[in-house]
Write a structure and sequence with these properties.
Elements (H helix, E strand, L loop, with lengths): L11 H13 L5 H13 L3 H5 L2 H13 L9 H8 L2
Helix pairs in contact: 1-2
Length: about 80
């Protein structure tokens, strides 16, 4: 399998997240962790790749600010509300 080398510059907070993943996934080095994360990202279904997460978060924040939320004491209460 042919390989190419690339160089990328990432913000410190991204590097920190990669290092957390590396430790959690027990990868031996950062390069291995980055390669696995890239492979995973490339296999995501189109829905997730194309979804506008920032827009969805903004809409959710508006709903929360408007008080259009519910809370439940149990999963059963939540399921009962869904069936209404």
């Amino acid at each position: 399998m042919a390989q190419r080398e690339i160089t990328i510059t990432l913000a410190d907070d991204i590097i920190e997240e990669i290092e957390k993943y590396r430790k959690c996934a027990r990868k031996t080095n950062t390069e291995e962790a980055v390669t696995e994360l890239i492979k995973y990202a490339l296999t995501l279904p189109p829905y997730f790749k194309e979804f506008d997460w920032e827009k969805a978060e903004a809409e959710a924040n508006k709903e929360i600010a408007a008080g259009k939320i519910k809370s439940f004491d149990s999963v059963e209460d939540f399921i009962a509300d869904l069936k209404k």
